[in-house]
């Protein structure tokens, strides 16, 4: 009987010791159930997830958590993104979360791309079906049309996978508003509507070989507008054509296509297109506000992407002969 009592006492001791050790090394850090987003950065080779979790006060012991990773996740790669973790979660619960798919994913939009292209990038990242992508593509088309195109600011975003198309659109638009805010008064002072500036900025972005010739192209566009000359910009026609059979959105256009009737056809119709043709970054928005002083009306880029401008069409033809033919 004494041996049995000793055995039971020993078992109880082991269980209590195990519980004590578990809570000491693997237990929750706090009692709050309020989740915070733990971020695993993009392309950061030296990022140590265990150290970061400890610094954020989401695990108790670094070595204990590394034991879980080394034992149960040897072949698993922890994905970059955002993970929702609460202080009242124990290390095993945290481990299960960070070795699963992230609740927020990184989405990067670069260059000046049109709304449908942004939608394709987001749809791939968030796993949208065609219904959600179609919903994205028509957002603001009839309601608040000034937000239909041009305001989906190119940047890197951390987006919850369950966000709806309107919520994602609002995220992009908020970023645009944040970037544009320092220049809003300057546009007002220059008597330029922000929608006009955004249209011009989008044309500059699609026409420029880089930020370095943005102000010159801006000056030429303003010269054409101020002299009532058709803009004659191929990028507006590329926008009209939409997606090509090879899956690309932008590219060369045939001469015959310049006769197609469209409000975006800047060969047939003077003035700016109905909307921007893509979402420019702040550099091009600044260039639209601050054009270079030039008397040029024409321009081209040579094979090295060097810009050459001309005041007359005859000089422009000479530039074509000298730099393109």
UniProtKB/TrEMBL annotation:
Organism of origin: Candidatus Roizmanbacteria bacterium CG_4_10_14_0_8_um_filter_39_9
NCBIfam families: endolytic transglycosylase MltG
Recorded GO CC terms: plasma membrane
Keyword Protein biosynthesis: no
Enzyme nomenclature, EC number: 4.2.2.29
Alphabetical list of Gene3D superfamilies matching this protein: Endolytic murein transglycosylase
Protein name (record): Endolytic murein transglycosylase
A Gene Ontology biological process term: peptidoglycan biosynthetic process
Keywords: Cell membrane, Cell wall biogenesis/degradation, Lyase, Membrane, Transmembrane, Transmembrane helix
Family: Belongs to the transglycosylase MltG family.
InterPro entries: MLTG-like
Role, per record: Functions as a peptidoglycan terminase that cleaves nascent peptidoglycan strands endolytically to terminate their elongation.
Coiled coil region boundaries: none
Catalyzed reactions: a peptidoglycan chain = a peptidoglycan chain with N-acetyl-1,6-anhydromuramyl-[peptide] at the reducing end + a peptidoglycan chain with N-acetylglucosamine at the non-reducing end
Membrane topology term: Single-pass membrane protein
HAMAP family, alphabetized: MltG (MF_02065)
Localization terms from the record: Cell membrane
Annotated positions for site Important for catalytic activity: 207
A molecular function GO annotation: lytic endotransglycosylase activity
Transmembrane parts of this sequence: 6-26
């Amino acid at each position: 009987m004494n041996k049995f009592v000793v055995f039971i006492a020993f078992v109880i001791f082991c269980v209590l010791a195990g519980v004590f050790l578990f809570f000491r090394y693997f237990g929750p850090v706090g009692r709050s159930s309020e989740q915070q987003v733990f971020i695993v950065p993009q392309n950061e080779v030296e990022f140590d997830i265990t150290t970061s979790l400890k610094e954020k006060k989401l695990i108790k012991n670094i070595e204990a958590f590394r034991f879980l990773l080394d034992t149960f996740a040897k072949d698993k790669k922890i994905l970059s993104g955002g993970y929702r973790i609460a202080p009242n979660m124990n290390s095993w619960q945290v481990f299960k979360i960070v070795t699963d798919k992230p609740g927020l994913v990184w989405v990067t939009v670069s260059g000046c791309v049109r709304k449908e292209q942004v939608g394709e990038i987001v749809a791939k990242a968030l796993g949208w079906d065609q219904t959600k992508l179609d919903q994205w593509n028509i957002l603001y088309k009839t309601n608040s049309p000034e937000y239909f195109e041009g305001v989906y600011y190119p940047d890197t975003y951390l987006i919850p996978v369950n966000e709806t198309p309107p919520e994602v659109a609002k995220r992009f638009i908020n970023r645009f508003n944040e970037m544009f805010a320092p220049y809003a008064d300057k546009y007002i002072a220059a008597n330029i509507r922000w929608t006009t500036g955004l249209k011009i900025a989008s044309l500059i972005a699609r026409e420029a070989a880089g930020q370095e010739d943005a102000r010159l192209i801006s000056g030429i566009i303003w010269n054409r507008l101020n002299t009532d000359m058709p803009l004659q910009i191929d990028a507006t026609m590329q926008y009209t054509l939409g997606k090509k059979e090879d899956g690309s959105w932008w590219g060369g256009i045939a001469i015959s296509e310049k006769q197609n009737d469209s409000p975006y056809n800047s060969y047939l119709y003077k003035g700016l297109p109905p909307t921007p043709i893509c979402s420019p970054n702040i550099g091009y928005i600044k260039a639209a506000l601050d054009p270079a002083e030039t008397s040029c009306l024409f321009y081209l880029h040579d094979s090295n992407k060097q810009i050459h401008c001309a005041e007359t069409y005859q000089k422009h033809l000479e530039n074509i002969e000298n730099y393109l033919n």
